[in-house]
TrEMBL record:
Gene Ontology CC: one annotated term: extracellular region
Organism: Rotaria sordida
Transmembrane segments: none
Record-linked SUPFAM superfamilies: YWTD domain
UniProt name for this protein: NHL repeat-containing protein
Sorted UniProt keywords: Glycoprotein, Repeat, Signal
Repeat (NHL) residue spans along the chain: 176-206
Gene3D superfamilies given in the database record: TolB, C-terminal domain
Pfam family, one: NHL
Stretches for region Disordered: 27-52
Domain of life: Eukaryota
């Protein structure tokens, strides 16, 4: 597990909304008591770290204008970091690519994609979730538009399929519907936020058949057993699962499977 957790902020569920705002996600108690809401973060094509002693963020990468040059991004969604090298990996959604940035660099390196949207092994299709696996020195990428999860070894410019079927939407144990979040546990098991199916899927290491461990397949809702467009997922240090339940405006915690 990473020593320092990464907070993922999504630009909205569905392409129609992605340019207008960043979703506000807050924790709901069972009684849904009124909480202090976080400030709205306005969307921009840059990555900015926030020093808690400062009132304004520091622009780490890019300018506020979008683009496809290696010093620009276009609707970046998720980030992941190699804590050993401090390299930052960014899912550059609208450019259909993943970029890497060494510490202090203003120009990135293309890891994979950048050849238009598609499902061949050198393309990405609206990449959203991303997870750096230090054990295999590779990236897991949730290909939102491609309906699958892929693994890209950093030494190569193509990917291998790990879950789902490229271009095929479905709700069976081997199919996905607009996946967004992806993460691994220390045993190599993979967790996927299967957004369109309103569920979280667990894929045991090396397996392509998933098991639903949270939510009800194809049924959105707001009770304790349901999810509504789950977006980002993360494991805590006890391997409990945290889920950003986007359309329910809450964070759900599920005890270790």
């Amino acid at each position: 597990m990473d020593k320092y957790p990464t907070i993922h902020v999504s630009l909205g569920f569905g392409r129609k909304k992605r340019h207008s705002y960043v979703k506000r996600i807050r924790t709901n108690r069972q009684q849904r008591q009124k909480q202090h809401e976080p400030s709205i973060i306005h969307a921009s094509s840059r990555v900015s770290p926030l020093d808690t002693s400062m009132k304004t963020p520091t622009n780490l990468l890019m300018t506020s204008s979008s683009g496809s040059a290696y010093n620009r991004l276009h609707s970046p969604y998720f980030i992941s970091r190699d804590i050993n090298t401090n390299t930052l990996y960014i899912a550059d959604y609208n450019n259909n690519r993943v970029m890497s940035y060494a510490s202090g660099a203003s120009n990135g390196t293309l890891v994979i994609g950048g050849q238009g949207s598609g499902t061949n092994r050198t393309q990405l299709y609206y990449s959203v979730g991303i997870h750096f696996d230090s054990v295999s020195n590779s990236l897991l990428i949730a290909n939102y538009g491609g309906q699958h999860i892929v693994r890209c070894t950093l030494d190569y410019s193509n990917w291998t399929l790990v879950a789902g079927t490229p271009g095929m939407v479905g709700s069976s144990s081997t199919l996905l519907s607009y996946p967004t979040g992806v993460t691994l546990d220390p045993m190599g098991n993979m967790y996927v936020a299967d957004t369109g199916n309103h569920r979280i899927q667990l894929f045991l290491a090396g397996q392509t058949n998933g098991t639903t461990i949270a939510g009800i397949t194809g049924l959105s809702g707001s009770n304790s057993t349901q999810l509504y467009a789950p977006y980002s997922i993360r494991l805590d240090n006890q391997l409990n699962l945290l889920v950003a339940d986007a359309m329910n405006h809450r964070i759900q915690k599920f005890l270790r499977y």
